[in-house]
Amino acid sequence: MPRARARHVVVLLSLLLPGALAGCKTKAIRGGEGTDNPNLDEGAMSTGLDRKDLDDLMKKNLASLQASPLWGQWRTSSQPVVAIWPIKNDTTEHLDDQMLTLLSDMETELINGGVVAIVSRERQAEMIAEANLQQTADFNPALAAQIGKQIGAQYFITGKLQAVDERMNKERRVQYTLFMQVIEVETSIVKFQTKSERSKAIIR
Q1: Which residues contact 102 (CB under 8 A, 6 or more apart)?
Q2: Could you tell me if 2 and 96 lie in one domain?
Q3: Domain co-membership, 6 together with 70
Q4: What is the distance between the alpha carbons of residues 141 and 119, in angstroms, rounded to a whole number?
Q5: Collapsing DSSP states into helix, strand and coil, what is residue 167?
Q6: Do 15 and 91 reside in the same domain of the chain?
Q7: Could you give the CA distance from residue 16 to residue 22 in angstroms, rounded to a whole number?
Q8: How far apart are CA 63 and CA 106, in angstroms?
Q9: Which residue segment(s) compose the domain that 32 sits in?
Q10: pLDDT confidence of 9, banded at 50, 70, 90?
């Protein structure tokens, strides 16, 4: 290629490339209620649990609790004192932040329901620290009874998250189950139990 023509091509590319690259530039968008993209959170990015999945699972379980005879009993009595024990993550996913959000959302829903009095999770953590005990997601009846007496809780809400992972060829499906229990502190009797399920898949 003659030198003059090559120089002409370089100049032409230098003029065209910035425009082409600008067209490919990554753009951040805002989604959710009250934005131009209200359904942005609806789409799944992977088979992992996201905040919407956990929120849906939690709300289904709370709806079952609020339709139960136990809830009806609580409605007709003076506000029972309830504490929320950590939800055990039995999946292989690292969900520490998501689980903390789940507990906070559950606490908010129960407080705003006005039927039960909820012990602050921060206060519960303080009691565990003062007793020189390690906070764990495993529900320990003896530990729960000790903490329950200190914080005045009559019931604990606890649960666990489990997953079944299935693969075939290049397809994958993960079935998640969130179990929830209400346990009476004084007797360790399970007063209510329910579960909700969510499946996520990658199909090629």
Answers
A1: 54, 55, 58, 87
A2: no
A3: no
A4: 18
A5: strand
A6: no
A7: 10
A8: 11
A9: 1-42
A10: very low
* Domain count of the fold of the chain: 2
Distance CA 173, CA 109 (A): 30
Residue where the block lists tokens 């490919």: 24
Angstrom distance (rounded) from CA 149 to CA 168: 50
> 130 and 36, same structural domain?
no
| DSSP H helices in 114-200 | 121-130, 141-151
Q: What is the pLDDT of residue 138?
A: 72
Residues found in the chain = 204
**84 - beta bridge partners?**
157
Report pTM.
0.72
The burial class, CB within 10 Å (0-12 / 13-18 / 19+), for 145 is: middle
d(CA 75, CA 77): 6
Could you tell me which residues come within 8 angstroms of residue 142 by beta carbon, excluding any fewer than 6 positions away? Answer: none
* In a shared domain, residues 69 and 13: no
